[in-house]
Amino acid sequence: MAVFASRYERKLPIDDTQALSCEITAVQEVAGHTEYLLRVWRGASNKNYWTVLRRYNDFDRLDKSLRVSGIELPLPRKRIFGNMRPEFIAERKQALQEYINAVLMNPILASSLPAKRFVDPESYSQSFHDHAVQNAMLCLRNDTTWSLGGSMGAIGWRLRKHYFKVTTKPPEKSSNKQLVKSGSQTHQSKHFAAGSSNGSGHSIDAGTLDPGSEVVAEWLEYGPDKFIDEKEIGGIMKSLMGLQHPHIEPVLLAAHTENGCLVIRKFHKHGTLKDVLCMAANPKNTFLSKYGNPKGRTALSMKQVATYGKQILEALIFLHSKGYAYGHLHSGNIVIVDDCVKLLDIENFLLGVPAFYRPFFMQHSKIHAIETIDVYCFGHVLFEMAMGYPLQESVVRQITECPEALKCLLESILSKEACKAGLPTLEQLLGHRFFLQYASTESRRRRCQC
């Protein structure tokens, strides 16, 4: 196939959640125009840095690509005359420094591909989309059930995760053929699927999906924390796909290559919990346009916060009881269906990708075990559900305008003192008086219907 002919240079895995910092250290005149020397580094230490040369037009192009977010940024205006005077250049240098600081200090903008490419072109210059298409096609090229459709765009926050429409193929003439071939059907890609609990490894019949259900294929590259050997990941993923719980969204099929994994699951038209909280009109819009500067925000009722929070805890406790880690809880990985929580992306830990809240919990030495990470992330989700906006720092400083029971619960997870002394367990959280006081008494009866 010609589509597989183009080469994708696989660089060493990078933690895309690590903060990038930038300092404009010098200005130079080249062929009648001004260039700015950017010194850039990843993480807290500036010892390992690299340099990038940028002109004002480069800043202007970056600004135009970020306008879809609706966030106002302090880009200095273009000047036609007098732009080579020393005092103007000094003023422009300071103004551009303030601009790039504003971009990189905003977690939504800083995680975007235009911002990453601007300060780190060496790591982000490749075509992640083309790479995703090639691998997704490779994963499904021998599959008899699913057909890859067009891209859904950058609807999520991960640069290396891509969403595609997917449809079912018409049944083949021979009724004796399996819907999905067994795990080692080719030496290039491996397929395994969640079907019946007997672990047969065949895909569920696509015809059993609800009429009108939309399905999405998600391609995700392996991350820097991947520790599972290539020979073992198929069996472990197959076992994970067999997990059934009312608060975990099942996976219809998963396939992997040496570069990453393709997962097919149901797409929920109302979007994720984050879409609900940000009042996103269309969950299929880009991540920048949905969450950069939402036109509205809404908090959930205390009954909803307690009910959904309790269901999340039950799902996490179930995963841990089966020996599986989650580690990727955030409002974008939760969907609500008829007042029933469904956790998404349970495969992320196995793929070694960095967690959404990693920049926060890495600041606390006590938060390193997988359960404490889940507890910490749960605190952030609980805060966002109750307040209607995310906590933008690693600890909560002051909690107001909420019931005393919720305040006590949030402080036990997100206060500076709690993060320093140690966090409660998932079981301890489940028994907290906030859930006993506010959670819906019908939630347990509804679980079997979810």
TrEMBL record:
Q: Which InterPro entries match?
A: Kinase-like_dom_sf (IPR011009), MONaKA_PX (IPR037903), Prot_kinase_dom (IPR000719), PX_dom (IPR001683), PX_dom_sf (IPR036871), Ser-Thr/Tyr_kinase_cat_dom (IPR001245), SortingNexin/PXDomain-PKLike (IPR051837)
The entry's function note states: Binds to and modulates brain Na,K-ATPase subunits ATP1B1 and ATP1B3 and may thereby participate in the regulation of electrical excitability and synaptic transmission. May not display kinase activity.
Keywords in UniProt for this one?
Answer: Actin-binding, Cell membrane, Cytoplasm, Membrane
Where is it chiefly localized? membrane
**Membrane protein topology class:** Peripheral membrane protein
Report the SUPFAM superfamilies cross-referenced here. Protein kinase-like (PK-like), PX domain
- Record's Gene Ontology CC terms? cytoplasm; plasma membrane
* Designated name of the protein: PX domain-containing protein kinase-like protein
- Disordered: annotated segments: 168-207
Look up the domain of life of the source. Eukaryota
| Residue ranges of every copy of the PX domain listed in the record | 14-125
- Domain Protein kinase span(s) in chain numbering: 192-450
- Gene3D superfamilies per record: Phox-like domain, Transferase(Phosphotransferase) domain 1
User: What does UniProt list as this organism's lineage?
Assistant: Eukaryota, Metazoa, Ecdysozoa, Arthropoda, Hexapoda
Name a GO molecular-function annotation: phosphatidylinositol binding
Compartment(s) where it occurs, according to its Swiss-Prot or TrEMBL record? Cell membrane; Cytoplasm
The cross-references to Pfam families, in alphabetical order and at most eight, read: PK_Tyr_Ser-Thr, PX
> Where is this chain compositionally biased, Polar residues type?
176-187
